Model the fold of this input.
Amino acid sequence: MSAITRDEVAHLARLSRLALADEELDHFAAQLDVIIGAVARVAEVAADDIPPSSHALPLTNVYRPDEVRPGLTPEQALSGAPAVEDDRFRVPRILGEEA
Amino acid sequence: MPYDEALERFEPVLGLETHVELGTASKMFCGCPTTFGAPPNTHVCPVCLALPGSLPTTNAAAIESTIRIGLALNCSIAEWCRFARKNYFYPDMPKNYQISQYDEPLCFDGYLDVEVDGKTVRIEIERVHLEEDTGKSTHVGGATGRIHGADYSIVDYNRAGIPLVEIVTKPIPGTDRLAPEVARAYGTELRELVRGLGVSDVRMEEGSMRFDVNVSLMPRGSSEWGTRTETKNVNSLRSVERSVRGEIERQAAILADGGRIIQETRHFHENTGTTTSGRSKEEAQDYRYFPEPDLVPIAPDPAWVAELKAALPELPGVRRKRLQQEWGVSDLDMTSMYNADAIVLVEATVAAGAPPADARKWWMGELARRANEAGLPLSALRITPDQIARVCAMVAGGALNDKLARQVLEGVLNGEGSPDEVVAARGLQIVNDEGELMEIIDQVLAGNADAADKVRSGKVAAVGALVGGVMKASRGKADAGRARELILERLGVSE
Done:
């Protein structure tokens, strides 16, 4: 029984804005299944007394003071943008016509 | 369907989500400034633009402000919680995710009491969490400037990363036909509370406070809640009220027709008071939240939280009760001041030395009238509490009467300067020089011989016409009381 289904991979691809062909879905589903299986093995060695962790460092409350620091000029900020208009990042159409 | 008919057949259930931009100097996770109205993309850096290799660091002041809001809303404060990534593809966040909180909000399980129609309604608070605001998109092309049908969009990231607190109520049943008023009262009270804490300027017209309004209906007698809709980004208290009303009417018409409500986001339109469909929520709201790996957990020291709690300022409801007692005004007067957003202004005017009754009289009378004419909130009038207090002092000192005071207020509102400058420029002092006043009185008596005779013959009531004549001849600058005394004296009549 595989850990991830082909439908789930198709769903993730859609959420990630990836256009995958049918044969690619099959291909990646098999690969992802192996990865999930490998990660699952970690759970097998974790004993009951080991709490789940989300961070590598045992730290809490790392803050900076509320102070303004210099950032980028608009020219610098926009220098890597594929398209610029009125000092703003220009992006392609977000949604199509209303259905 | 008309509102009354809708309420005969259905009961509404409300829910409100409020976004408040915090008034910190710098952004949530970087040192960019947060001031409103800067030229596009001037408040940006590698962190809030999500350039490769940049890492966020949490703003300590934002954590403190959020906890203070939570405490003021009677919430429990998490002993340990994390930020979470909310993943979505939309160009208002350059990271393709927003740093937010998911199942571990910083504050939870609180309440806020609001007063509607003389009754206290307790609004339960589900959670208060911290996230970052998004950039501002402008949609170009297409017929309406809206996102649908636009040719492309342009994005300014100045706002992206400003700390944003989200305050979420539990579902609010039982408001019945007062649902629109309850929604508005909650918004008003929450704004007062946040403003009182000094953590945000809560300027709704600049978007620093905005509401998402959830409404569902259930048939009378049913206990099963209906499908809700969420009207997004409602940005005035009046619109909160109107959007609830409009959505109740719309949903009732659909349900009465045997239709079903689609769970979706909707947009409110100021001009019509109605909502239209936005993105459909049925299509997989799959944000794939997971703990933010770039930020370590938040674990507020309980002793520090207790200190913050002890240092909270007087909350608005308590403050109103105290002021009402100090000012000696009725419930009704207090409510009308509250509804007119005049309490802060009256309080500041009293603090500047005016008697409470006078402060209230001007703000709720002449100034309310002028604000109403101009379609502005009282606070937007170009006159300060100090200036009102100065006018009150001049009236009390006998330099002005009420009629002249109104002219002084008009001058200040017109930008003619301070009250003293307006008095000097317009020549509005009361005529205190008795010689000058007597001259006017003699003129008026000469021109109104009939009335003068009546008074002489004992009909003292006729003196009113003569006083009126003096006031008119002096263009309102005479002291009416003194003029009356002098006229009677001149005519040899004693009362």
About this structure: The radius of gyration of chain A is 22 Å.
